[in-house]
Each structure stands twice: as structure tokens, then as C-alpha cells.
Amino acid sequence: MNPCVLPTPLPDLDGDKRWHSIHRRFISDCREKDPDVIFLGDCIFETVQDTEAWNQYFAPLHCLNFSIRDDCTEHVLWRIENGALDNVSPKIVVLHVGTNNVRNSAEEVAEGVLANVTKIRQKLPNAYIVLPSLLPRGQQPNKLREKNAKINEVVNGLTKGLYRVQTVAIDKGLVQSDGSISHHDMFDYKNLTNAGAKKILEPLYDLLSQILNENEPENDLTPSE
Fold first, then answer.
1. Where is the SGNH hydrolase-type esterase domain (predicted)?
2. Torsion over CA of 64, 67, 68 and 69, rounded to 10 degrees?
3. Are 42 and 95 in contact (CB under 8 A)?
């Protein structure tokens, strides 16, 4: 059985139960707030929440960010099954997960992403599900970078034609002409600086704004007498 599709809580290796505490806080946010957009994911979107680019693009959009640093596909799947999307009706769910599944094959990870999409659809039948591409990682070309590219390719194929599911490439400009990634964009060659966050958030913001605007009731544009 593919471990990427088996809902599993993150092991509490440190013994402080922080992961479960964060999950319970997210569930509380669902009861108290009415977001238009929910982000579900891993370290990539957990860290960008603290950037100027996030504040510029997404703070005004009534967003909740339910991303946890070390999550893999199976951990996000467990969170969805255990209340992460209960008591909310967002117009869009942004799912970014898979880069931490370093021990699994590209095909296994893509199936894990699809399992999350399926579970989100069960919880929120009419929400748009947006899948930003997994980002390249490592200062120089490496196997994990190649695997993330393969995951993106497989996910695109698996989700093509699905109702209100859309992929979006967000990695433009991160890899330089010599194949390297700059620490000015990714401070640890995986997570983003403010400059790197701006590069990935601009195309995502454009797509989310388009979806939100398309679903706004049309204003009466009839000239007043």
C-alpha cells in the first residue's frame, strides 16, 4: 500500500505535542472565522506567511493558512479527515504538499496529492482546488529537484479535467541560467526569502483573484436616471 495515501498524524518525535496543538488551533479558527481562501500544506507556505509579499498579496483576501512545516501528503490527509476543513465554506483551497515526501517515488507522492484533492472535494463539493507546483530545491541540480518536477508532471496528468481543480506553475525565476538557486531567493535552498516569495506568490495571486472575481455577483451597471 502506498504510504502517501494513508492518513497518518505526524509522529511526535520531540514529545511536546506541538503538531496536534497546531492542528487543534486550526480547527478552532474554522469555527471562529469565515475565510474565502484556505491554504493547506507544508513548510513552503508556512514560511511565506511571514514575508512582506504575503502581507501584500494575501492578507487582504480573507485567508487562513493551515500549513505545517514538516507535513507530508499523509499528514495533511489526516488533518483533513480530522476536522481541518470542517465548519468552513471557502471559495478556494490551495494545496501545496509533497516536497517533504523525500523517501517516496514521484508516482507515490502524486497519488498522495490526488488523495488529498479527493478528500477536499468530499468535504467541500463546490470549492475550487488550486495546486501550486512543487518548487525546485537544493543549490545545485539534484535528484530531489528532478523528482519534484516529475511529481508536478504526474499531478498535472492525474488532475486534468477534474471539476474545479487547477494547477499553477509558481517556480518561474527561481533557477538561474547555470542551474543554481540563489540564497537570495531560498535562504536554505528550500524555503523562500521575501524576494523568492514574491516570485512564487505573484502568479498564484493572479489566479486566485481571477477565480474570486469570476464568482462575485455581477454589479448592476445600468446608468442611473
1. 39-196
2. -130
3. no
Residue 173 phi/psi, 5-degree rounding, is 90, 0
Task: Give the C-alpha separation, 201 to 55, whole Å.
Answer: 11
| Residue 16 belongs to a domain | no
Location of C-alpha cell 463539493: 125
Cα–Cα distance, 109 to 216 (Å, whole number)? 35
How much is the pTM?
0.94
> Which cell numbers hold the place of 50?
511571514
Residue-wise pLDDT tens digits, 74-118: 999 999 999 999 999 999 999 999 999 999 999 999 999 999 999
Q: Residue-wise over 172-202: b if at least 16 C-beta within 10 A, else e?
A: eebbeeeeebeeebbeebbbbbbbbbbbbbe
What are the grid coordinates assigned to 45, written together? 507556505
Tens-digit pLDDT profile for residues 56-78: 999 888 899 999 999 999 999 99
* CATH code, domain with 76: 3.40.50.1110
* Domain, as residue range, for 118: 21-211
d(C-alpha 47, C-alpha 118), whole Å: 26
Q: Which residues pair with 128 in a beta bridge?
A: 92
Phi-psi region of 17 (alpha: psi -120 to 50; beta: other; left: phi over 0): left
